[in-house]
From TrEMBL, chain A:
GO terms for biological process: fatty acid biosynthetic process. Keywords: Acyltransferase, Transferase. It comes from the Bacteria. GO terms for cellular component: cytosol. InterPro entries: Beta-ketoacyl_synthase (IPR000794), Ketoacyl_synth_AS (IPR018201), Ketoacyl_synth_C (IPR014031), Ketoacyl_synth_N (IPR014030), PKS_Beta-ketoAc_synthase_dom (IPR020841), Thiolase-like (IPR016039). Residues 1-395 form the Ketosynthase family 3 (KS3) domain. This is 3-oxoacyl-[acyl-carrier-protein] synthase I. Pfam families: ketoacyl-synt, Ketoacyl-synt_C. Its EC number is 2.3.1.41. It comes from Novimethylophilus kurashikiensis. One of its GO terms (molecular function) is 3-oxoacyl-[acyl-carrier-protein] synthase activity. It is an enzyme of class 2 (transferase). Belongs to the thiolase-like superfamily. Beta-ketoacyl-ACP synthases family.
From TrEMBL, chain B:
It comes from Novimethylophilus kurashikiensis. SUPFAM superfamilies: Thiolase-like. One of its GO terms (molecular function) is acyltransferase activity. This is 3-oxoacyl-ACP synthase. InterPro entries: Ketoacyl_synth_N, Thiolase-like. The lineage of its organism: Bacteria, Pseudomonadati, Pseudomonadota, Betaproteobacteria, Nitrosomonadales. Residues 42-204 form the Beta-ketoacyl synthase-like N-terminal domain.
Amino acid sequence: MKPLHLSHFTATSCLGRGLEATLQALRERKSGLKPCDFDIVDLPTYIGEVSGLEEVQLAPALKVYDCRNNRLAQLALEQDGFADAVRTAVAKYGTERVGVFVGTSTSGILQTELAYRRRDSSSGELPHDFDYDRTQNTFSVADFTRHFFGIQGPAVAISSACSSSAKVFASARRMMEAGLIDAAVVGGVDSLCLTTLYGFNSLGLCSPQACRPFDARRDGISIGEAGAFALLEWPQGELPKDAVLLAGIGESSDAYHMSSPHPEGLGARMAMEQALGSAGLRPQDIDYINLHGTATPSNDAAEGKAVLDLFGSHTPCSSTKGLTGHTLGAAGAIEAVVSALALQHGLMPAGANTQTLDPAISLDYLLDNRKVPVRYVLSNSFGFGGTNCSLVFGRAA
Amino acid sequence: MMSKALTAYIEGIGLIGRGLPDWTIAREVLAGRMPYELQPAVVPAPQLLPPAERRRCGNIVKLTLAVSSEAVAMAQADASTLPSVFTSSHGDAENCHAICDQLATDDKLISPTRFHNSVHNAASGYWSIATRAMAPASVLCGFDASFGAGLLEAMTQVAVDGTRCLLMAIDTEGPELIKDIRPKDGLLGIALVLSPQPRPQSVARIDIGLTHEAADRFTDAVLEQLRLNIASARGLPLLRQVALGQSGRVVLDYLDGTHIAAEVTPC
């Protein structure tokens, strides 16, 4: 594929607001996870919460979109000069020539959960101030983003569970390659809610402590929330050496089970192979792999097998979910930003919380940061329903 | 037209909605060769799934499997090799309602089945599992713009990746409690198998692009109400043009101010 330039990008998670805070947490290996104290949730688990969302005020014209998820979207868009960069691109290409592709799994469902608690005690009706389509609906966060910038090009929410905001890159790239748009705002936003906390708990997938990807005693995920975005443009002129390019994309389905990965990681392997193929690279060209690494026993075992089969045991890799938590529909986007930071700063970030590596998975899993030049990174995102997406990012030089 | 056209060939069509029990009958109704009778939609049990799964899955899964099977059979395609695009204005809203209802009580321990069925890609996941399709699956939501969003995604897969693609635009009824939800009445699912090249089973060539022109409306009041009330039904004017078996141009509803123009040429 023709590489695309991530001309601007940003991330906000429990690690902090924007790139500087994110990079500092990666350098210090400082996890943002804490014991769950979200809303009225009573579960023995850890969460990655973005602080200060209660104070975020949506732009006056967009008040109807007010919910935790869209507040997180706006907060993320406003970091690192990202919103200004998008406005510049919209002015350059035209409002109709920019597209919006936002990944989310639960969008603003917390707003509905709260509304259901406020149902009229006699009629059972929902409160009149509840606006389903502009808060809870899956499209809401993409629609909010589109209106935030006055973009009139194609706009869509992509919701394939935990691969959602990796797959935004695939859809945006096709739309650009087809000539329908010249630039794309891609990203992922997912926020804490009772549905995912109690839902993953019901599947026995929430760890009672901060998650430990690829640890021999890993016992589940820590749910986090995040918003991360990138502006995709065709490379123009001579790019600076540390410019970040989307070089390859691979997508596949497990066709195996709704909530368990293929035990041999077959779908994961197909996605990684295709990503390498579309980038024109061999496995040995990849310097670092940002793993999906949720810290469930089955995900890490299956992903570990797939990586070992394709790359052997010598490619440095880690999951950054011990730092950020599993941000579900935002995971692909935030890990794309982590990959971009790895490329620009020559930093292979180690996983956090992991103490003793699983001896059954013989990978070069990083327990300490490595400061080395990084030319190509592969980032994995896999989701419920067996949707897999692998992305290859590279430096311009 | 404000953008260059994307081309594909329709090889298979699946359709279920009120008074539209399958494509064979719907083709006659949409072309005006048969009267439109508002019979309730009947969604067959998904034979592709094992009995236990058949019982546990919601209407949205059944509708997805039914219309997709019809389209794939007509296209004489191998479902296991087809990339797919699933689009829905709100997924399984009944299931979501049940979860939110329980989370508002003291017993918040929701069932694992309810939870894994709550993901927007549940029906798409069941389709891939049932047909052993390991090809990519794109899963989208555009609220009322869901059909247009799905059509654009499928057309770019065909045009850019050069693959055949199965488009599934699926909407089922939501809980009465949520007033804004679509569909307002009934359910509707459309599946299309699209191909980059013409083949003997192709029924029409479509060339689509974005436009500011107003979306076409049905002159039949009942069909027009259906189009407005169900996001996937916004695709029915395209199917009507195919059903007529004549060359023509239709404008489909998409986002406010941005619509999709489609030139339809019978094969």
